[in-house]
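User: tokens in, sequence out, please.
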């Protein structure tokens, strides 16, 4: 009996495989089911065909063997948001837990696409699909006689982000992966400060926060700052270059909207090119979250990408391209442009804008280095780091901690240094390691001393 936390994935590495399970007495609730972004690059094409075992062996998905004994006890899965490091392993793992899966509409729609693309476990994927439930921000769902899930709206770098809260007889468990405090988002939710404070008053048993940027002694700037940066750089590039190519996170709908709006004001036609831009862009359009200017096009299949780029190359100054490849991923549109594999020749008259940062992993660093070197050799003008992060800085974290005043903390979603940086903040706030603050790595479990 009691409450136990299972650190399934994302404990000890940045940007990957986020999955946490909580056992409350004899019931299990799972938070997120993500893939590792860089490890999956190895499997990029074959991911839908790959088996759970082979993906687990290369650490592309969480190793959930620690939960084997408890699979039949699972009563619900709560998905926090639609980033792949939080939902990417759903088609490979969740069929083992025959229980409802909750997320906001945008998240659920993207999970559906992944399940439809699944090849290896197509039948099982259909079963999971039947168990998906879309919730609205603020919703509360009774998942068993004693457990209730609540979805508190929060800001992050993708629409539909929530902090799932599990209400138990022992107090609330708040899963805060991922978030930042941003009051000036246009598309994503506003953080619900009032509800967070109220939860703190009602009694929070456990906080499971992300740790990616907690070492940075900042309050993460608002997306409105990124909008200004985008507008500033695009105006400059419009004067100084012929072709403008912007690359950003395909799931960052708010950013794509800002780029497209500025392009429209500059009188350039917007083209989105790339498979994942098509996936996220179309779902966002269907749900009315993304409103591209008249005449904008999305090209997400090899032949349409090719034709679209060919046309744009003939009148470069008439277009603004938003393309995949900000991390220099092999097979992405920008990478292939740099390799002369697509009919858009990059020259010293063109500008490439990186509206992103490098996700700090050795594979990304090496891919980006190669990409930038190729662009430099062509004389392309580069505009880097036109970006603000979607992750909480130290002061965002401190604010959350003070609002919630949790009894216990288990930092998640970070490499050992990041988890330790969270511990530094928590000890400043009066917590003590191994008393009410627990640092852990993948594959371990912690019984809360209650
Ligand atoms: Zn995220």
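Assistant: Sequence out:
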């Amino acid at each position: 009996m009691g409450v136990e936390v299972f650190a399934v994935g994302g404990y000890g590495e940045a940007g990957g495989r986020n999955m946490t399970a909580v056992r409350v007495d004899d019931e299990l609730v799972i938070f997120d089911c993500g893939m590792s972004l860089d490890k999956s690059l190895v499997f990029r094409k074959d991911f839908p065909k790959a088996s759970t075992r082979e993906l687990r062996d290369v650490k592309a998905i969480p190793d959930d063997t620690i939960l084997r004994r408890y699979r039949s006890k699972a009563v619900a899965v709560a998905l926090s948001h639609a980033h792949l490091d939080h939902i990417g392993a759903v088609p490979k793992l969740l069929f083992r837990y025959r229980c409802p899966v909750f997320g906001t509409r945008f998240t659920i729609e993207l999970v559906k696409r992944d399940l439809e693309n699944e090849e290896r476990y197509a039948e099982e994927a259909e079963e999971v699909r039947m168990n998906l439930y879309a919730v609205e921000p603020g919703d509360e769902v009774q998942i068993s006689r004693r457990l209730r899930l609540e979805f508190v709206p929060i800001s992050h770098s993708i629409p539909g982000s929530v902090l799932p809260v599990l209400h138990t007889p022992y107090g609330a468990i708040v899963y805060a992966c991922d978030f930042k405090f941003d009051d000036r988002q246009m598309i994503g939710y506003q953080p619900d400060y009032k509800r967070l404070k109220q939860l703190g008053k009602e009694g929070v048993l456990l906080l499971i926060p992300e740790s990616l940027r907690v070492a940075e002694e900042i309050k993460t700037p608002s997306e409105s700052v990124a909008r200004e940066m985008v507008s500033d750089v695009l105006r400059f590039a419009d004067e100084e270059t012929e072709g403008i190519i912007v690359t950003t996170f395909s799931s960052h709908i708010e950013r794509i909207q800002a780029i497209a709006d500025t392009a429209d004001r500059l009188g350039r036609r917007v083209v989105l090119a790339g498979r994942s831009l098509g996936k996220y862009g179309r779902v966002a359009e269907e749900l009315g979250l993304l409103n591209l200017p008249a005449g904008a096009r999305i090209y997400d299949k090899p032949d349409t990408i090719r034709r679209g780029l060919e046309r744009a190359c003939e009148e470069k100054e008439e277009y603004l391209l938003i393309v995949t490849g900000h991390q220099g991923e092999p097979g992405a549109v920008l990478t292939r442009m740099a390799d002369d594999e697509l009919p858009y020749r990059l020259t010293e008259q063109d500008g490439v804008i990186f509206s992103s940062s490098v996700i700090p992993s050795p594979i990304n660093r090496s891919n980006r280095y190669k990409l930038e070197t190729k662009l430099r050799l062509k004389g392309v003008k580069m505009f880097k780091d036109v970006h603000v992060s979607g992750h909480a800085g130290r002061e965002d974290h401190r604010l959350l901690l003070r609002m919630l005043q949790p009894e216990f903390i288990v930092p998640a979603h970070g490499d050992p240094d990041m988890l330790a940086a969270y511990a530094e903040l928590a000890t400043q706030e009066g917590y003590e390691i191994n008393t009410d603050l627990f640092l852990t790595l993948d594959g371990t479990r912690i019984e809360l001393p209650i």
